[in-house]
Amino acid sequence: MPVYRDEAVVLRTHKLGEADRILTLLTRRHGKVRAVAKGVRRTGSKFGARLEPFMVADLQLYEGRSLDVVTQAESIGSYGAEITQDYGSYTAANAMVEAADKLTEDEGSLQQYLLLVGALRSLSRLEHGASLTLDSYLLRALALAGWAPSFEDCARCGKTGEHTAVVVQLGGVVCDDCAPPGTPRIARSTVALLGALLAGDWAFAEAAGEGDRNQASGIVAAYTQWHLERGLRSLPHVDRETAAP
């Protein structure tokens, strides 16, 4: 059977039998892969700890009929241990890997892989607030999937201006002429924060106030749910901290 190597993020795992585990992986070059890791639940397993959720590893696999099989695993990023020690990071990471699972197909995307690895690395190092990191990741992952929101020009007609009406179904902020009756308005500072999260402007994002962060998180959650239809099951459990780390 063909053997191949690739880097991968472990998205989720399921028990199989008494000692094995089924892994859902987002790989660098082979897209999303489902594979069996045999014997990893045994105490003496050589690479069981390297194949937990949020871990990044260099894997050797061989192709099976329905599931590939992991034969070697070398750790690249041991992010899981650090992430699970912080509740906010842990809940954010769960939402991230669930989003990555839903946004990527079998053919995968190098950009989605690199974005997820970078976000998990940032969480493990507590570089930014976990909630801000999650919101930035979701906006950028949705943009890579073809659903880039607009937080500057009107998402419907392209009119420039300082728009404060938000319609997630239309793709972001809209002008007064395009806004349906009763459209909620948000502060310009919240619109600016959303733009900073999409662009990765961390200096601006971390200077935002509690009210703007909370409002932005609600919009990101609504935008994510709209495009993923059923949304993310783990998102309501995210610990939305209000202070920078």
TrEMBL record:
GO CC aspect terms: bacterial nucleoid
Residues in coiled coil: none
SUPFAM superfamilies the UniProt entry points to: ArfGap/RecO-like zinc finger, Nucleic acid-binding proteins
Keyword annotations: DNA damage, DNA recombination, DNA repair
Ranges where the DNA replication/recombination mediator RecO N-terminal domain occurs: 1-79
Family designation: Belongs to the RecO family.
Name of the featured protein: DNA repair protein RecO
Organism annotation: Agromyces albus
